[in-house]
Amino acid sequence: MVEILKTPLRKIYYSMPASGVLMLHHAVSSADFVIRCGLDTDRFEDLVNEYGGHFTTLEDVVRHGRKKALAITFDDGHKDQYSVAYPYLRERGIPFTVFTTLDFLDTPRFMTTRQLLEMANDPLVSIQSHGISHRLPDEMKPGEIKRELRASKERLEDLTGKKVSFFAYPSGRYNKEYLDSVLEEYDCAFAASGGVLNFWSGRNRKLLPRLGVDNKSYEYAMKTIGRII
After folding, report:
1. Distance between CA atoms of residues 21 and 190, nearest Å
2. Would you say domain 18-228 falls under CATH 3.30.70.2860?
């Protein structure tokens, strides 16, 4: 019975006006090392060129979640987000958000603080929180999550001089303490899955959905985007 209902329910779900918050990690091709969650540069460029007229800010998508728009988000603060994605998007005037993990700054394969601040000063770029340590919930003691939510917001705001309103759960993992505390510091928080943002999925500001885009999920993601645009 469940399988019979899946197709019509999926059609109803995707018939609702919706927007998409895209979750990326990399936009680089490299034979030198295996890139987890990697998206090849040519696929990244194809995505941008295919839907270039539909991209807007994350703030705009959250505010008007049913307007058939797309927002690009990157997680962690990898170096190629600055060296590859940023120049390509800047040239085309496309806004994007970087969910930054503070402890990753100035470490190998991640952005430097100077690079992050350069992007933070660009009106096209929004720097938001991905925590301080990127530890998973079961690696943290009671009370640590609440302190990290506050500290990551305060440190990013001090660093960039800009308001930090959004949080993305590290590795998409969360627990009761995260869900109980996140809206005390942030306007909303984003999962690492869940598909598109519509009337139903946008009701829970603690767990707004994103659509992952990497080499493994690329074809599925492009199909999903095509359904809502």
Report:
1. 9
2. no
